[in-house]
Amino acid sequence: MSNDLFQSRYKVLQGLVVLIGVVLAFRCFQLQIWDTSYQRKQSFRQIITQYPSRGLIYDRNDSLLIYNLALYDLQATYESVKRSNIDTARFCSFLGLSPLQFSTLMEKDWTDMRFSKRKPFDFMTKIEPDSFARFEEHLYEFPGFESVIRNVRGYPVNIGAHILGYISEVSPKQIEKNKAFYKQGDYIGASGLEMAYEVQLRGKRGEKHVLKDKWGKIQSRYKNGSMDKAAESGYDLVSSIDLTLQRYAEDLMKNKIGALVAIEPSTGEILAMVSAPTYDPNILAIDNKRGNAFALLSSDSTDPLFNRALMAQYPPGSIFKTVLAAIVLQEGAMTHDESLSCPGAFTFGNLRIGCHGHGAITNVESAIQYSCNNYFCNTYKEIINLYGYDFPEKGMNKLVEHLNAFGLGRKIGIDIPGEMMGNIPTIEYFDKRYGKGRWRFSNSASIGIGQGELQITPLQMANLTAIIANRGFFYIPHFAKEFKGDKSDVLKRFKEKQFTKVHPRHFEHIVDGMEKVVLAGTGSRAMISDISVCGKTGTVENPHGIDHSTFIAFAPKENPKIAIAVYVENSGYGSSFAAPIASLMIEKYLKGEIRGEARKALETSMMNANLMSKNPAQSSIRLKNPDKTENID
Amino acid sequence: MNSSRKSLIDLSGYDWIAVLLCLLLMATGWTMIFASEYNPDTFSGLLNLDKNYGKQLIWIAAGILLFVFIQFIEGRIFQNLAFVILGVVLVLLIAVLFTKPINGSTSWFDIGGFRFQPSEFGKTATALALASLLSLPDVRMQSFTGKAQAFVVIGLPLLLVLIQNDTGSTLVYLSFLLVLFRAGLPSGVFIIGLILIALSIAALMVDKIWGIFHILLIIGNFTLLRFWKKDERLSMGFSVLALLSLYFSGTQMFLTIALQLGLLVLVSALNLLKRNWQITVLTFGGIAVAMLYSSSVNYLVNNILKIHQQERIWVWLRPEKCDPLGSLYNLEQSKYAIGSGGFLGKGFLEGERTKLDYVPEQSTDFIFCTVGEEWGFLGSIILLVLFMTLLLRILYIAERQRLSFAKYYAYSVAAILLFHIFVNMGMTMGLLPVIGIPLPFISYGGSSMISFSLMMSILIKLDSERSTAFR
Fold it and tell me: Where are the alpha helices (DSSP H) in A30-98?
């Protein structure tokens, strides 16, 4: 090769090869080692939330009250849909869409940061299972679309709307409060048990780590699912509700305005609670028609969304006399066997509170039996004047102390939201009204007959009944009996006895009196053969119309199984509606059925009674300070 | 008879290093294709012909068979038939123009589902023809006819491939310039070529061409000042002026350009007074031509090229001008895939980015992404070393040939491989514009696998005859 003049160019070309090698190696170094930002970006890995199924709710006998119902969301990924060239007409026919609707749903504002052409967005939401089932079989024909199941709630028995509550989409505020858990479109308990036990019912969310290809299609699980977390279902709630009794109560309260609360005194478990009028919980279940139903219920003048059992603050009327009797005996201001002649009214100076004709008052039992106004105004006087006529403040303090222990004038702590405190008179109130030191017991004597400034919710009345039934203590009334499998102590507070400041022996006299009320007093319509029912009527004059009737009762007298309070607006005497309804409830609960012709006839007439058609606008419950009402029992 | 038979089966002359390197690369390539496609849920055996890795096994087998077959053909037959082979390939390249376009280019024959790309074989045919031409005693690169003949041999297939709308393969033919360089094509051609490339890149990297003009004028002034008076203080002073003028060119561009232009005229005149005719005319003319050239390139690319062609250039040179979710997306994904590998890579079959379709053409043109992602920097460097070793080995083989034909053929092979490797890897890493050409022995594809096998087989065969060959 002596004629090769360009031998030296071999070296140049060798150099070129090495140079290119070095350049490429340097670039590898730059991308793979020097610039670490490439190692961080991981848009292809996506975490898919696995929704747990919400805990079911049962009644105390394991009958289902709330179950889960599937609704479907359809999500679309723009790029994949556009790329896969689907049969749009066919797609639309499955979902009942017009081509125009399809394109409006598909074209989002892509300049908006919330949307990305490569990420799934909500194409349609809340599709009913029936219409979705047909479509889902063909889902594979439409790449780019994915279905997401949403658990919503179904109510198989249509009862207890106020107790069970409903779920709704979380509000931005709620998301702000608990960012770790909720995001837009999630459901959260919005009232009733659903709201109270949201944490227990909602369960724990799971995560599925998946790898998505650049078209947004799920390709495989990240690290074979080793980082995945399975969703944990919420705890099933066994509630204290007795389904049969609850339904019976709702039937009895149909076409009436008022409330009913039945408690098992030995546990504080609420067997039934009705706020009438009520509504079918299914109409507030999540579907596309819910908004209308909500608007309709909100505008109803009888206010079905208002839970009267916890929120309506009624003057208690004569049922309050039982409490006063217990307090005065405890304080020793009167003895149980003190007799008092009734001149037909309580008079003190110019003050006169009328009474009605009744038998002789020989002791506290007969005073309760005949609901003597004179006797209890006197009782009230004795309590306020415990420390002398000129020191009503100290007596008032003592009274408030006792009433608070009875769960009055405060929230008792029931487990569903919305409970009201009611109202009991305080020193501050009278000081403000009459001036400090310028008032005496006589300024509030009507409290002695459960009127005046007193306001008590039906729940407090029922709890009061339970206290008497228990002879001096109660358990906080509650609906949650047990969460299946939950080991936390969320329900611990319902297992602690709450004592009043009255000795049990004093209650025996009250109980005896209440027994006589039913046997031979104002509550005789509550009598049930072979069950010893103890009760107390109350009638509250309603200046707007017909009086409200109220009745508290428990049975049997020894070892009580049920304590109940019934309040029926615009129904006249306590004995006319409230007492029969309470006694029917007791019989139904204790015997399982109503026995005897007369009782069955009573049942029918109670169920058919329609007090709403008469005069629906007479309700006074929403008035904060009802006009002065007079007890006429 | 005996001796010729003996030479056919004599394996001692074989360059086993090159053979081994090729086999290693093929194995690596197949592994990468497998990794980029493997899905545990649908995997049904390696010989699944629905998958590229299954088909590639067949192409590798075919390549090896071809190698064995070539070893039975005497080397000089290739030399003698080189132009006939080129002629046949040229006919095929013309014929392919009348087929239906696939992906916008008419470069494929589709025979019963198997696609065949004549331009792949065009490279080998051109290599043989060029080597054959350069081995002729009267063909010299210094002479005009020599250059013309060589350019015709390279230019004919190049033009036909260009008409096919296959930019990648067209540019591969430019690699033959390296062979001509070895054969003696004057260095000036290459220097001017490099200057023009640099000028083009510079012209494309700016919005307004004035900046380039400015720098060109400074270079011209500097050269002329040095020639006028060899005075350090003068050139230092000018450098300061030039820096100042560059600093202010942002705000007062036209003023500084006018200043430099005035200075150029002045210094030219001064030089002319000193009778430095040649340098003055050369510098003045050179600056003028460079200014004209750079503005034409800028104009051409911005106004004549189609949008999609422009985009490739902008993605390469000015990524900040591109839509990260549009034209830039593929390249960014490719860089992310390689970069995400880190030092040791994510491990075999763990390359998420490549497997999840984020990278385009992941088993063909962008196969290097899988290497980068799964095997990291270490694996990439090992692959690079394998390639560079093969290239240097081929250059070594070339230089030990006694036959010019074999030598230039070897250089052709080296040049083609070098171009493919540089452009392909450079493209996946954003160093070079996206030009769709395969990575030799690594990328999936029958045509390229067979073509590179053929190329190497002939080289190994020619080399094995180096001791028996006569001039």
Answer: 37-40, 78-84, 88-95
Are A211 and B391 inside 8 Å of each other by CB? no
Q: Does A211 touch chain B (CB under 8 A)?
A: yes
Of B339, B398, B421, the CB nearest to A31: B339
| Interchain CB distance below 8 Å, A215 and B357 | yes
Of residues B49, B174, B19, B45, the one with CA closest to residue B444: B49
Kindly identify which residue of chain A lies nearest to residue B335, measuring between CA atoms.
A31
pLDDT at A622 over 50: no
Contact by Cβ (8 Å): B397, B18 = yes
B381 to chain A, any CB pair closer than 8 A? The answer is yes
What phi and psi values does residue A249 have, to the nearest 5 degrees?
-65, -45
Answer yes or no: same fold for A47-239 and A243-279+308-614. no
Q: How far apart are alpha carbons B435 and A163 in whole angstroms?
A: 70
Q: Which of B41, B366, B380, B397 to probe by mutation at the A interface, max A CB count within 10 Å?
A: B380
Q: Is B330 on the interface with A (CB under 8 A)?
A: no
Q: Are B140 and B184 in contact (CB under 8 A)?
A: yes
CB-CB under 8 Å, B339 with A214: no
A2 φ, ψ (degrees, to nearest 5): -65, -20
Indicate the pLDDT class of residue A327, thresholds 50, 70 and 90.
Answer: very high
Q: Which residues of B touch A8 (CB under 8 A)?
A: none
A45 touches chain B (CB under 8 A): yes
Confidence grade of residue A1 (pLDDT, cut at 50, 70, 90): very low
Domain coordinates in residue numbering, chain B? 2-190+332-337+405-421+429-464, 206-315
Quick check: A570 pLDDT over 80? yes
Taking CA atoms, A436 is separated from A362, A385, A430, A432, A605, in Å, by 38, 16, 8, 7, 52
Write phi, then psi, for A76 (nearest 5 degrees): -130, 145
Distance from CA of A115 to the nearest CA of B (A): 14
**pTM, rounded to two decimals:** 0.61
Superfamily assignment of A243-279+308-614 in CATH? Answer: DD-peptidase/beta-lactamase superfamily (3.40.710.10)
CA gap A330, A376 in Å, rounded = 15
A-chain CB neighbours of B429 within 8 Å are: 24, 27-28, 31
What is the predicted pLDDT for the residue at A618?
A: 42
Domains of chain A by residue range = 47-239, 243-279+308-614
Shortest distance between the Cα of A140 and any Cα of chain B, in A, equals 18
Residues 153-192 of B with CB under 8 A from A: 178, 181-184
Decide which of 3.40.50.300, 3.90.1310.10, 2.60.120.10, 3.40.50.720 is the CATH code for A47-239.
Answer: 3.90.1310.10
